[in-house]
Amino acid sequence: MYRRIALLAALALMAFFMTGCFDSNPDDQSVPWSRPADWERGAPGFGG
């Protein structure tokens, strides 16, 4: 019984520490190819 609870708690902690989040805006990245060029933003004839 206690072994199962300990195993579940360990798995929950591992899942918590192994997950991450992306906290940066993609438009703020330093590489130039991370965002489309001005001419790639819209299709012709659709107001882009």
Describe the structure.
The chain is mainly α. It has 1 helix and no strands. The radius of gyration is 22 Å and the shape is rod-shaped. Residues 1-23 form the signal peptide. This is Lipoprotein.
Q: Notable features of this structure?
A:
48 residues, mainly alpha, 1 helix, 35% helix, 0% strand, rod-shaped, signal, Lipoprotein
Summarize it.
This protein has 48 residues and is mostly helical.
Oligomer: single chain
* Rg, nearest Å: 22 Å
Strand proportion: under 5%
Mean pLDDT, nearest integer?
76
Helix content: 25-40%
Overall SS class? mainly alpha
Number of helices: 1
| Uncertain parts | none
Count every beta strand, where a strand is a DSSP E run of 2 or more residues.
0
Shape: rod-shaped
CA distance, first residue to last residue: 62 Å
Major sheet details: none
- The run of helices and strands is H
